[in-house]
Each structure stands twice: as C-alpha cells, then as structure tokens.
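Hi all, long-time lurker, first post. I run a small reading group and we've been trying to get comfortable going from sequence to structure in the token notation. Rather than ask abstract questions, I figured I'd post a concrete chain and ask someone more experienced to write out its structure so we can walk through it together at our next meeting. Sequence below, copied exactly:
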Amino acid sequence: MTVFSELRMRPAAAGRWGWDASNTSRLAMAGVVIFTLLVGANLATPLYPLLQARLGIGSLGITVAFSAYVLALVSTLMLAGHWSDHIGRRAALLLAVLTGLAGGFVFAHADSLPALCAGRALQGIAVALATGASSAALRELLPERPEWASRFTLLASAGGVAAGPAIGGVLSLLPGATSTPYFIHSLVLLALLVPLYLLRARPAIKPAVAPRPLKALAPRRPSVSREARGAFWLAAAVGFLSFAVFGFCLSLAPAYFARIVSVDSRPLIGLLSGLTLGASALSQLIGIRSRFAVPAGLAVLGSSVMLIAAAAAWSNPWLLIGASLAAGVGQGIAFRTVFNDVAGKVETSRHAQIISTVYVITYLGSAVPVIGLGLATAAYGLEGAVAGFVVVCGVAAGVLAAVTLRQSLRTA
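-- Answer (accepted) --
Happy to help. Here is the structure in token form:
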C-alpha cells in the first residue's frame, strides 16, 4: 500500500513495489521512531535556563511551555489515539515524523513564549500520533510474547525521554545553543522518512467501511471492557504519579539540580535530569516476576523521591544521583507490571485506542502537577515548592503501594 492510499483508507493499486521488511526490521523501526520523537521533545530540558534568559520568562513560563507539549499530546491521544487502527501503523508513524519536523522548526526559531508553546504543542502532537501506533505495532509483531512487547514499548519511550536532556546538553555546546540541537535532530527525522516511505505496509487492523471511511477517524468516547477495567485504572494511577515525577525532572529540575551540585554545565545538568528516566528504561531489561513487584516498586519510588529533597537540604550530589536512579528503577518495575497487565487484557482490535487512553491519564501527570509546582515556585521559592511536591508524591506512592500490597496478599 502507498502512504496516500493508507491515509485515504482505500486499497492500493496492485503491483506497487515496497520494502518487505522482516519482523525484526519492523520492530526496530517502530521503536526507533517513538524513541527519536521523544528525544526531540526533551532536547529542551537543559536549554530552559538559556531560554529563560533569552526570552525573559520565569519559572512559570517554563512550566507553561512544558505543559503546552503535554496538553497537546493528551488532546491528540483523545482525538486521534485510534487512528493507526484504521489508517495503518506505518501511515500514523509517518505523520508523526512530519509533525515532529514542524515542531522542531518552530521551537528552534521561537522568539517568544507563545512561539515556544506552539513548537512544544506540535512536538506533543507528533509523540501522540506515534504512541498508540508504535505500541500496537510492537504488540502485533510479538503476538506470542506480549510482556516483551510492553517492555520494548516502555524501553523506547523512557529511553527517548531520558536521552533527550543528555543529548540536548551536549549539542547545546555547539554554536546556536538553542537551535542547533533541533537542526541536527531534524536531519535524523528526515532520514527516518526514507525507510518509512519505502516500507511495504501491512493492512490496517480495522479497515474503514465505505462509503464514509473518514467517519472511522471521528473522536471516540473512551471505554474499557469490564475484564480490563481494574487493570486499566491501576495502570493509569501509577502512570499519573510516575509522570508527575518525570515532569518535574524535565521542567524545573535543571535549575534545582544545578543548585545542589553547584555547577552550570548543561551536559551535566541534562544528564542529571535524565537519570530517573534512564534508570526506568534500563529496568525494563530486568526480569522480575513477583506478585509484590508493584507495591515494592512504588515503595522504592516514594522513598527515593523524598530523598531527592533531602539531597538538596544536605547539598549532597551523591545522594541526589542515588535517589534519582532508585526512583527510576522503582517506577520502571511498577509501571511495567501494571502496563503489561492491562495490555494483556485488552482485545487486539482496540489495543491502540485503550493504550492511548492509558497514556492520556499518564501524561496528565506531567502537566497538572507541574503547573501547580510552577505556581508554588513563584509563591514559595524553588526549594520550598519542590519540598512540598516531593512529599505529596511520596505520600501518593505510599498509598498506592499499600493498596497494591493488599491486593497482592489477597491473591496469595
């Protein structure tokens, strides 16, 4: 099928040549696309102090720009999270890459807070279009190994978010610190368009019905089967809490961490900002099978987050590093377990839609609490606001750990 026939949801003309890629190549492509888009969406983390100085905006402005990305992502997941079921995974990923290119261009040339928000919003749309498509593609390519499909999904996602700040910090040392990282990233996205276009796409899992195929793309009311409902809400709750912590790491954490380690090196600050997410990504390679994995992971997450504030109070960079790594491992194990549970209970034909809905709630954790943190920073200062934020996150993690522990003991 050609890309254009996929987008029109019509059969392609017979005899069209295409790259009949192996399952391994398709797995790699699905993972690389979401990884690369998330790298681009998080290149800005170590650049925020530079943007604050250049554009004359405060901490609240940074949280608004960050939240523009998340809110656009969430809105697109709600409106178009099911599109790849109808237009095909390849077409959805290609649209995501094109939108990511536009977002990077706008952000690189932003000269005001509204322009910054517009670039971030386009990046959010790109990530949303790729999220459901890549997750569903990985699940379809590994039908006999659903747990590994979930692991690859989270590895690519968390890995991209973790790598973004570190790569952004290194590239910011080049001339044009706030624009060069996006120009280089755009070249990578352009290179990805070639194999995506040449790929011989597989038919959509739910082809649209003539004569009104576009009706299939209309927004859908989120719904979950009764069998998957409990797993869905647990995954959404753990995801919301996890991304509240991630949102802090990717927005106000650079300034906060800089005060703890007493340095202004953008590569180092970018690396510190991505530690928690990097540990979360690597934890997907750890094979832990226990009914107590979720409560244990949440307990580690909650205690580690509060230790981050303790590291600031004691000006202890080693405690900061250790707590950040432990928080990522705890989050990664807990979220992988609940994510895999809901993915395994959802029918294949609705996988992209339901997983997108999980991410709607999950990504709201990166927006709502972070906006509140920005407002608190303006009122109480960065240290006071972060101290209150980590206490709330720690208590929430403790409550979820107690609830899941009780459920685990019941099934013993």
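A couple of things your group might point at:
The longest helix spans residues 351-380.
The mean pLDDT is 81.
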